[in-house]
Design goal:
The protein is α/β, with parallel strands linked by helices and about 130 residues long. The chain has one domain: Response regulator (Rossmann fold), CATH 3.40.50. It contains six helices and five strands, in the order H-E-H-E-H-E-H-E-H-E-H. The chain has a five-stranded parallel sheet with strand order 2-1-3-4-5, with helices on both faces. Strand 4, helix 5 and strand 5 form a beta-alpha-beta unit. The relative contact order is 0.19. InterPro entries: Bact_response_regulator, CheY-like_superfamily, Sig_transdc_resp-reg_receiver.
Amino acid sequence: MGSLAERLEVTVVDDTAVSRALIIDALEQIGITRIAQAKDGNQALRDILAKPTHLVISDMNMPGMDGLALLKKLRETPATARIGFILVTGSPDKTLVERGKALQLNNYVAKPFTVDAVRKAIEAVVGRLQ
């Protein structure tokens, strides 16, 4: 059956191609290869509704629909309400984290992040990857 890392389907959402690439690189170093990506919250929502994923790793600050707005939409939709959600933010202040927790945010990663920080954040949500 393979490790959880090999089976896990992750959607990376960030409006900046470089940031998406950094997250995807970290995921690949961890052993996660089933990765979809979206350039904003609206695209991510459409893609995830069409093909649900196990875990969303989303940037906070994006034009249109930010990370918490995407989280709120996913939680309001029965088919996507239980998807794991990790927010990536450059400013993980207390207010933002509390707003996320009110929306059932599973975890967050502060920028700049390390591969190890991403792995720990994911394992806190889904369990051991290897």
